[in-house]
């Protein structure tokens, strides 16, 4: 066991001892809200310049916003398996979408259930096998559609009509009002399908943002010349890989000079990035970006409204003061950065995820944490909050010590990441890596050419990660240290080289 791990355990033991003496009435309820593919840059609490999310923001305003929250594997199913087990993908057995989750293994919901918590799951599951460890579940089938989703309610198929985000909201409110046992604390997972591809908004939001030109990210036209070969071989660009299925109509093709002039006149004055008479390829990309991002953000608006409805329900039922509320996403997302949509990479937009936590009496309202945390830490956090002992072999740690916004001595200084799904949709190469507060080292471990195998980024000097400095003399010492740290983390987490 490393000195870093021992230091963290020393911090947690007094807290665990206190938690074990909690009375039934003192044990907090836990409401875990997770959306699918909600990038942190599309939340106003994180400074979005595209949209506002007042209800999600409420959680941070009354609790703690985590600014350095990351995932272990940036893809839907594996992220969910990590959250349930507190184990990296290679140990919980769910490394890529299409795997089937082993429901017989230990999970946080099972442990909470055994400790007297009433457990429930409503919304997206996406782990193929049936949920275990829940007294009640009402889940989507697979990914689930945006409208009229059939769902599986405690083993029985139920046909439903309506907008899926609203249905998940209503089912959650219904369970809080009528389904829970008021004599027991609860653990409730509310999992949205939105804003997953292909971004179908609710009818009430279809024209939202019609009169707005969304800001473009500075790397929308990144040519990846500062990266290795894997970045050039992906299949997730806005310019080439968004389809009619995504855009709901065909993008503009061979426009006439008059049409080009009209398009530029309509958009150029509203956005400094637009250039009059831009090449048709750039115009198409910009048009596609606007159409894609607006539908995505319309879906986010419905998610935000659902969060507001559930927070209001907690207030109305008198539960807010003794309920931990967590909002997160299963990973981050690209909103045009590097010219991309989707996730998977260890680059910041998809590696980093939103995380806001409100725990009355534990989180300081409006506080911000810059501690390095991961979705790996959620299962231990659930257990610690409930006064349930955290198993020694869980690989995450409880977030309780950093919830007030301060990072105690001995907190971790590096994180491990690994992505396994290749070849597959979007063709993102397998990779693993280590990140610290300032640096990130990525190893594309199946690349034959050493120049394509390693990428190193200095996030302080290059926050957009466009300049790979691996192999540069000025970073030789840093790179050597990070390679050693990557090896240490792989050994600590039981990763085979």
Largest sheet: 10 strands, mixed
Tally of contiguous helical segments = 15
Q: Could you tell me the CATH topology label of the largest domain.
A: Alkaline Phosphatase, subunit A
Strand sequence of the main sheet, in spatial order?
A: 7-6-5-4-8-1-9-10-2-11
The CATH superfamily of the largest domain bears the name Alkaline Phosphatase, subunit A
Query: Could you say which structural class the secondary elements and strand pairing correspond to?
Result: alpha/beta
The best one-word shape is globular
Provide an overview of this structure.
The protein is an alpha/beta fold. The chain has 2 domains: 3-201 and 292-407, Alkaline Phosphatase, subunit A, CATH 3.40.720; 416-492, Arylsulfatase, C-terminal domain. It is built from 15 helices and 16 strands. It has helices at 3-19, 54-61, 76-85, 89-92, 108-114, 164-179, 229-232, 238-241, 244-247, 257-267, 280-316, 348-351, 378-386, 450-453, 476-492, and strands at residues 29-35, 64-66, 69-70, 118-123, 136-140, 151-153, 156-158, 186-191, 323-329, 355-358, 367-369, 373-374, 415-419, 431-435, 439-443, 454-458. The strands form 3 sheets. The protein has a 10-stranded mixed beta sheet with strand order 7-6-5-4-8-1-9-10-2-11, sandwiched between helices. A 4-stranded antiparallel beta sheet has the order 13-14-15-16. Strand 14 (431-435) and strand 15 (439-443) form a beta hairpin. Helix 2 (54-61) crosses helix 11 and helix 6 packs parallel to helix 11. The chain starts with a helix and ends in a 5-residue tail after the last helix. Residues 1-21 and 268-278 have low confidence and may be disordered.
């Amino acid at each position: 066991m490393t000195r870093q791990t021992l230091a963290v355990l020393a911090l947690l033991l007094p807290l665990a001892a206190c938690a074990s003496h909690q009375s039934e009435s003192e044990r907090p309820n836990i409401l875990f809200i997770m959306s699918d593919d909600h990038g942190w840059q599309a939340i106003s609490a994180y400074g979005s310049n595209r949209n506002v999310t007042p209800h999600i923001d409420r959680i941070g305003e009354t609790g703690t916003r985590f600014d350095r929250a990351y995932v272990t594997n940036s893809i839907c199913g594996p992220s969910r398996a990590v959250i349930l087990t507190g184990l990296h993908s290679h140990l919980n057995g769910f490394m890529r979408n299409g795997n089937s989750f082993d429901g017989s293994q230990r999970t946080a919901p099972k442990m909470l259930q055994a400790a007297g918590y009433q457990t429930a799951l409503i919304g997206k599951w996406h782990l193929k096998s049936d949920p275990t460890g829940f007294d009640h579940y009402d889940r989507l089938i697979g990914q689930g559609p945006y409208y009229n989703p059939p769902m599986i309610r405690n083993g029985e198929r139920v046909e439903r009509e309506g907008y899926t985000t609203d249905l998940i909201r209503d089912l959650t409110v219904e369970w809080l009002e009528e389904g829970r046992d008021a004599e027991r604390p609860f653990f409730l997972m509310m999992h949205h399908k939105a804003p997953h591809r292909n971004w179908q908004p609710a009818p009430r939001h279809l024209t939202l943002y019609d009169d707005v030109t969304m800001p473009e990210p500075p790397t929308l036209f990144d040519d990846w010349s500062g990266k290795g070969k894997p970045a050039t071989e992906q299949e997730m660009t806005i310019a080439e890989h968004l389809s009619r299925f995504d855009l709901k109509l065909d993008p503009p093709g061979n426009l006439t000079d008059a049409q080009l002039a009209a398009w530029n006149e309509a958009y150029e004055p509203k956005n400094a990035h637009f250039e009059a008479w831009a090449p048709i390829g750039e115009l198409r990309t910009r048009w596609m970006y606007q159409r894609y991002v607006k539908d995505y953000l319309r879906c986010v608006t419905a998610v935000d409204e659902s969060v507001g409805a559930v927070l209001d329900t907690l207030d109305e039922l008198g539960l807010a003061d003794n309920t931990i509320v967590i909002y997160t996403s299963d990973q981050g997302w690209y909103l045009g950065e590097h010219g991309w949509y989707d996730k998977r990479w260890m680059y910041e937009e998809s590696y980093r995820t939103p995380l806001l936590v409100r725990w009355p009496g534990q989180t300081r309202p409006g506080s911000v944490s810059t501690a390095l945390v991961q979705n790996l830490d959620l299962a231990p956090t659930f257990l610690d909050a409930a006064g349930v002992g955290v198993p020694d072999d869980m690989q995450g740690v409880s977030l309780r010590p950093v919830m007030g916004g301060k990072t105690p001595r001995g907190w971790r200084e590096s994180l491990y990441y690994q992505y396994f799904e290749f070849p597959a949709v979007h063709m993102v190469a397998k990779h693993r890596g280590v990140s610290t507060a300032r640096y990130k080292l990525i190893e594309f471990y199946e690349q034959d050419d050493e120049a394509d195998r390693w990428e190193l980024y200095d996030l302080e000097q290059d926050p957009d990660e466009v300049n790979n400095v691996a192999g540069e003399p000025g970073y030789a010492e840093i790179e050597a240290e990070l390679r050693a740290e990557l090896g240490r983390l792989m050994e600590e987490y039981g990763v085979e080289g």
